[in-house]
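Q: How would the structure tokens look for this protein?
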Amino acid sequence: MIHVDSPVWPAHGRLWAHLVSDVSLAELHAFAELLGAPRRGFDRDHYDIPAERVPVALWLGAHYATSRDIARLLRAAGLRIPKHLTRPH
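A: Here is the predicted structure in token form.
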């Protein structure tokens, strides 16, 4: 299942949200492509998406989650990648 949090993370003059999967990175990449999110928005275990894409993500079937839920879901799925570790995309 795909989840998105509120766009509260400021960067580059915009607010950003996190888009994650609790199933697999393959599911996440497929959904991000459907959403039109560029691959450069992928960061280890999530996509950063701008605020204006959040309603579209929800319309496409993503479920709203809090930022705390996002971290919990990633850990429970074994998909959480800490900043000090990297995984090839």
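DSSP finds three helices and six strands in the chain.

The CA atoms of residues 2 and 31 lie 8 Å apart.

Upvote if useful.
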